[in-house]
Amino acid sequence: MWSRIVALFTIKTKFEAFLVIYGLGLGAVERGMHYLQAYPGIPGKILFAACPIAVFMAGARILDSLERDYRD
């Protein structure tokens, strides 16, 4: 029973990985827009830039883990 539930949350293909990364990117930009409103000027721009950078790092990790599974 638990294995069927776990299978729903497992990323198996690159298409699924790109969908997850796209969702993370949308959320990061939305959070960055809130940072721009809350912290006008340079601090808001720095916080905005940090959000997509975190998505780039997470996306690279997701894609790397998929490729590593295919090599075995």
Task: Please describe the structure with a list of short key phrases separated by commas or semicolons.
mainly alpha, 72 residues
General description of the model:
The structure is a single chain. By secondary structure, the protein is an all-alpha fold. It is 86% helix and 0% strand. It contains three helices and no strands. It has helices spanning 2-8, 14-38, 42-71. Helix 2 (14-38) packs antiparallel against helix 3 (42-71). It is elongated, with a radius of gyration of 16 Å. The two termini are 27 Å apart. 0% of the residues are buried.
List the topology elements.
Layout: H1 2-8, H2 14-38, H3 42-71
Helix pairs in contact: 2-3
